[in-house]
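Record Heme-binding protein 1, 330 aa.
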Amino acid sequence: RELFPGLVVLVALMVSVEGGVGPSNNSSFCSESKECLEYELVCKTDEYEVRHYSPTRWLSTDAEAYFMGVGAAMAFRRLFQYITGDNNRGLQMEMTAPVLVRIPEETRMWEPAIYTLSFLLPAAYQERPPTPTNDKLYFTEMPSMDVYVRSYGGWMLSVTSRLHAHLLTKELVRVQADYNHTYHYGVGYDSPLKLLNRHNEVWYVAEGEAVCSDPQEPTPPHTPTPTHTPNATHTPNTSHTPNTSHTPNATHIPSSTIADSPSDLPANRPPTPSQAPEVTPSQGPVVGESPLANSSDPQVDGPWNNTVEASLEDTPSDNSVADPTELNLA
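=>
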């Protein structure tokens, strides 16, 4: 009776530990490894998603370097030697995904930082993994946790990892989310041989209840707000209709008004078109369409048109009006 409750706890612990590692076909971006870290998607926004991870066991090592890429390369060689047989049992294991790099937040450009690289142990070795022969390797128990995740493509470099970490923290501050500020994880899923469609992530461990909504905006983010023009429906559109009721234009003044004001004109001015003798069919030849006129322009049978057209004829008519330039204005 005393052993039965303890056995139940042990079995439950084994199930919970092995439940975090599963086949790679359960994930769309973890495709190169046979086994991947499984998670439960809690929620997702336009900028990040919240995942829940069960407890898992990892193999870890530390490396001190000025840049994350240099430290990760040194640590990777140690971990890779372990899974290829450098352990007390000489066992070889399949590579799993993802690979975690713990990156401290408080780092300076002129000082080295300690980066921790971790390999996920396969499901068969989660409970009893072989002991490493390198004393710089140790096991890490990852507890059950919720993490804020931001994904990006390309290569996981120091610059890109810092950039996306900054973008994620900026969004978490905006939505007033609580998270661990001392470090974050750089997460890689692909081998160095893969060149295209790479998948990387940035993790921040959530503290307290995860936040998936924006408390400051009642509407979803990235929704454009329609722009309203004030009094657009009550103001008639008169931009294309010029108002000429208060500003007289010379085109609306009758020609007779100009002709009836002799005081404004010089005495020796040639006769205006309105004073030219009218050309009738009986008085002169019929003038056809002017070669200088556009076919789309309206043709007006007035004395001014007949006078201009008559002046363009090669043989002047007896009834044509004299050219004003030939008059003696002296």
